[in-house]
Amino acid sequence: MFKVTMNGKVIECNNKVKVLDLIENHNFSYIACSVNNRLRELNYELNQDAEVKLLGLDEEECMRIYESSLRYIFAMATHKLYPDLKIKFNYHISRSIFCKILNPGVKFNQEMVDNIEVMMRNIIKQDLPLKRIIVTNEEVEKIYRQYDLTDKIDILQYRPEKTVHLYECDGYVNYMYSYMVPSTGYLSSFVLRLYTPGIIMQYPRSEAKGNMLPFENERTYGLTLKQANKWARILNAETVAEINSHLDTQANIVDFVNMCETKHNNDLCELGDKIEKDIDNIRLIAIAGPSSSGKTTFSNRLRIELMTRGIKPVKISIDDYYVDRDKMIPDKNGKYDLEHINAIDIKLFDQHLVALINGEEVEMPSFDFKQGKRVKGKKVKLPPNTPIIIEGIHALNEMLTPSIPRDQKFLIYIAPQIQTNLDNHNPISITQFRLIRRIVRDHKFRAFDAERTLEIWDSVRRGEFTWIYDNQEGVDFVFNSELDYELCVLKKHALPLLKQIPKDSPNYITANHLVKFLKYYRDIDDSLVPCNSLLREFIGESCFQDV
What we know:
34% of the residues lie in helices and 20% in strands. It is an alpha+beta fold. The strands form seven sheets. Strands 2-1-7-4-5 form a five-stranded mixed sheet. Strand 17 and strand 18 (373-380) form a beta hairpin. Helix 9 crosses helix 10. The protein is globular.
């Protein structure tokens, strides 16, 4: 006999039992579970004392399981209806999945969308089981060829394990690099819409407490993703296997790194052209983006780009305008929220910007983080027509600079917009890409272990949803800060940190998920990363480090 404590209730068991069979009044509201702090499927079998927590769609990991399972059902329905079609998934606008057809000259139409949705709803209504099966790498290759999933074969050579966990449902087999829901009945919440040339699939979001968010046709973001996708094709870096194929020789690695860096150089040149053409009007260059986008290095490189054009901008730190800590409004947990806009002395910041633009001398503040208060800084007076650069979470927020007309502002949104997949059915998360950057940077520059970074990540994400994403549409320029080679560099920094997180840690679930896709990347040595690369902001030894 053993005891299972599930959501506070103690259950005595005589024989091994699935977590799913212990759930009373089961109504598909739980997606997965935590068993002794380790993420498990609801079909996980218990045979000894355990602490079990049932998890729903308000948990990010459960949302990821739901989304992976939904991709599986979409691919399954498409295979049943159109067996000759090859499809590819990518993350897209409005926090959704975009599916396109890879067959030349074939595009989705409304009739196909309707047929796929009817088939998906039928599969879901039948509540068919998703069965996990284990096969060898040799066996899985034969299965992939049978289902014409040959893109999945390419990455097998980089898989350290000897076996693969596939999922079978009503005769269909696929693998989504994720745990899955127990059966198709869990997946009733989704929306399909034709978004030519593909299909947009929306699904419940954890940040919306498991609800669906309204569709937003984010034009600026959509164009950025389209450009990123085009660049990945040009570079032959649409999958991890394709990226790894560039690393066979030292010469090829050098070429690959420099092609990626040249893309950043070209984008900066394009940005410099746009600013130069309107420099008679531009007085403020505002740069914002989510955590670990590379804002600091980017602003320095932009400053130098403009200097080559005879434009000499001055950077001003928004952080120096924090109100004294004893005047900050604590959050619901009693902690100081430095990401809230009220943590900044908006009135003083706005006044100083206007004064500087008008040619007046200003005594700038400097925020002393040890004392938690502002102290006197240096006096600044700008030459005529000198643009000011600001960067930070609120830089694009109109509340921060209300006295400066929009036509005098040049707004830049920066973020890594990765469009790389493990295979055609499994895109890599942009959010997790940034999290890996943050883990490496926090360890390098703040002496944080990965556990500490993961502990604060939810708070960081809440700040992004509150203050950043609503301001990205309508900007003057979007800079994609992703470098297609960078996970080959970050891998060796991140993996040891992630593997230090113990299995009984509440952060083990997230850490283990990051390990699962990082392990597929081959290594690139740090010495091949240029000193002015945006990647140096995270791994160190940047030439801008003390600027």
